[in-house]
Design goal:
This protein is an alpha/beta fold and 326 residues long. It folds into two domains: 6-142 and 263-308, Rossmann fold (3-Layer(aba) Sandwich); 144-259, Rossmann fold (3-Layer(aba) Sandwich), CATH 3.40.50. It contains eleven helices and eleven strands. Strand 10 (289-294) and strand 11 form a beta hairpin. Helix 1 runs parallel beside helix 9 (265-283), helix 5 packs across helix 6 and helix 6 packs parallel to helix 11 (315-324). It binds 6-O-phosphono-beta-D-fructofuranose. 6-O-phosphono-beta-D-fructofuranose binds at residues 13-14, 75, 105, 129-131, 173-175, 226, 259. 6-O-phosphono-beta-D-fructofuranose (F6P) binds next to loops.
């Protein structure tokens, strides 16, 4: 295997708070090992279009506290084609990049996997997504911050919900994973969570809510994961209005504010640890693995396992919400 002298680093897919902390950690750990670092802008799109620049220790100073990503990000359609990946490989050669670090979510790890197989390049993935949907790591970078953002917003919605005796359906992100919805529902004391991993009928929902109303709880919050698999927040709100006309139903879609903001201390520490671990992994001769955290230990997860679509939600979390929302 070729000795590593230069690495490339990029962020890809939806941005997530803490990505900057990961860029900083990767850059400084690589420099510490005597390697050169090339920052690639706009994810795989920048690799295709040769949008690169050298990163120094100074270029990553004063970024750990900022949301978003200084390298920018994109969802590259062209990288899904053979021709796109050929151009990307050309850029790797132009800059003498011997190994690639990809910070991103499920789609980005899958992209890295295909590229690494096709061109025999050592690639290391770092899980960066608010969705927490990567298998093999307890948490992804950005998830904790997004969760806290949601909880803060739902606390505010609770004030108006209880003042007006209303039922609020609050839609949160997560793509096809219910981690944000389930855990924000627990943390905000919501009455129910609708997640793609579990089927919820309107009657079940009606029962959750009237259970609260019977006990003189006049307002309720239902957190709905954005997934297409469950019909969406509007579907539930409409059905609730037509089948339970006595309830005063309102909808709030939290949207992109969930992806922004200063990363939490947890996400900064996670990103710093995973950034250093990615460089350690390369030094150990690892390739085509995602670095993750399992029980507070660094683990290497093969790409094929990490991007499996079915990271399970712990049943205990579902029980906790059910028990505590009576
Ligand atoms: O993957 C992160 C995420 O924020 C998902 O929760 C959401 O479904 C998606 O990205 C939105 O993507 P886009 O930024 O392309 O609209």
């Amino acid at each position: 295997m070729k000795k590593i002298g230069t690495i490339g680093v990029l962020t890809s897919g939806g941005d997530a708070p803490g990505m900057n902390a990961a860029i900083r950690a990767v850059t400084r750990a690589a420099l510490y090992s005597g390697w050169r670092v090339i920052g690639i802008y706009r994810g795989f799109e920048g690799l295709i279009n040769n949008e690169c620049g050298e990163l120094t220790s100074q270029s990553v100073s004063n970024i750990i506290q900022h949301g978003g990503t200084i390298l920018k990000t994109a969802r590259s359609k062209e990288f899904m084609t053979k021709e796109g990946r050929r151009k990307a490989y050309q850029t790797m050669k132009t800059y003498d990049i011997d190994a690639l670090i990809v910070i991103g979510g499920n789609g980005s790890i899958t992209g890295a996997q295909v590229f690494a197989q096709e061109y025999d390049i050592p690639c290391i993935g770092i899980p960066g997504t608010i969705d927490n949907d990567l298998y093999g790591t307890d948490s992804t970078i950005g998830y904790d911050t997004a969760l806290n953002t949601i909880v803060e917003a739902v606390d505010k919605i609770r004030d108006t919900a209880s003042s007006h005796d209303r039922i609020f359906f609050v839609e949160v992100m997560g793509r096809d994973a219910g981690f944000l919805a389930q855990n924000s529902a627990i943390a905000a004391g919501a009455e129910a969570a609708i997640i793609p991993e579990e089927k919820t009928t309107i009657d079940q929902l009606g029962n959750f809510i009237s259970r609260g109303v019977r006990k003189s709880k006049n307002s309720s919050i239902v957190i709905v994961s954005e997934s297409k698999l469950n019909g969406g927040v509007m579907h539930y709100a409409e059905r609730m209005r037509s089948e339970y006309p006595d309830y005063d139903v309102r909808v709030t879609i939290l949207g992109y504010l969930q992806r922004g903001g200063r990363p939490s201390a947890f996400d900064r520490i996670l990103a710093s640890r995973l950034g250093v671990a990615a460089i350690e992994a390369l030094k150990e001769g690892q390739r085509n693995v995602m670095v993750g955290i399992d029980n507070d230990e660094i683990v290497y997860v093969p790409f094929s396992r990490a991007s499996k679509m079915d990271k399970p939600i712990n049943q205990e979390l579902i029980n906790v919400l059910a028990i505590l929302s009576i």
